[in-house]
Amino acid sequence: MVDNLDLNALHEAILDKIRAQFPALETVEDYDADRKELEVPAVLLELVDMEAAPDADGGSGQLPVVCKWAARVVFSFAQENVQREIRKLAGALGVLVHQNRWGQPVSPATVTVIGPDAFDPAFDKFEVWAVEWDQQIDLGENVWSGEGITPDRVMVGFSPDTGPGNEPTYQELPGGAA
């Protein structure tokens, strides 16, 4: 999809979109969130894992992976109507995630789960739901980037009518290279 995708930029883009969409959240963080003094309501983002996606190899020399993300919605049990409120926020977060690319060169997000999350035993005093999604990214450098001309159409010739002088017999492939 792109040369050397910056995972830090992807994390920040996701956090920024969540902050912008839900300004009433007290905390929107990832791995560095203080778990002991967490101000709620909160959304905590985590890149859970990256699974190789060899069927998605676009021939760029990059490693296609499916990122599994989790955004944990955390409320205090003392929150009024906590059961309804956490479900409403988790659902709204799922809507934000659905098909979102975060302004980054990644595939559209596919929401896989919205539901209760055991999270962390230290959070027994909290109600926690998770919004989980998959998103494909390509890691590493694209072998096709750099100098040169990117073709905008692909033409096919059939032997023996190929080479210089036979161009009028070539057929253009539908879709081209764009």
Notes on the structure:
The chain is of the alpha+beta class and 178 residues long. It folds into 2 domains: 7-139, 2-Layer Sandwich (STM4215-like); 148-178, no CATH class. It contains 2 helices and 7 strands. The protein has helices at residues 7-21, 82-97; strands at residues 27-29, 42-52, 63-76, 110-116, 126-139, 155-156, 171-172. It has a 5-stranded mixed β-sheet. Strands 6-7 form a two-stranded antiparallel ribbon. The radius of gyration is 23 Å and the shape is elongated. The mean pLDDT is 89.
- Please give the count of helices: 2
Tell me the distance between the termini. 13 Å
Total beta strand runs: 7
* SSE pattern: HEEEHEEEE
Question: What's the architecture of the largest domain in CATH terms?
Answer: 2-Layer Sandwich
State the helicity in percent bands.
10-25%
Beta content comes to 25-35%
Summarize the structure.
By secondary structure, the chain is of the alpha+beta class. Helix content is 17%, strand content 30%.
